[in-house]
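To start, one record:
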Amino acid sequence: MLIPIERQLLQQQDYDSALRSAADRLSASGVRNHVHYSPARLLELTDEKRWFRPVVDHVAGGIWVEPIGTEAECGASRRLSSGDRLG
């Protein structure tokens, strides 16, 4: 799923603000979510207990969210590899 982001945030490479903007867009459409910042940037859809890895796409002008599993599969204290980073 691609979540459109303001071009200014992408041009400034302000990825934390871009991720917050994506989460705000989801919230505005009624999707409950939570952004996890440590140890890597992840987006959790709280009603579904699903976790997603955000991937910035400058060409498409947004953030793709790639599913990485459910809460049971990932666990609240899931340790992430260095490849699980925003951007």
Summary: The chain has a mean pLDDT of 86. The CA atoms of residues 42 and 78 lie 11 Å apart.
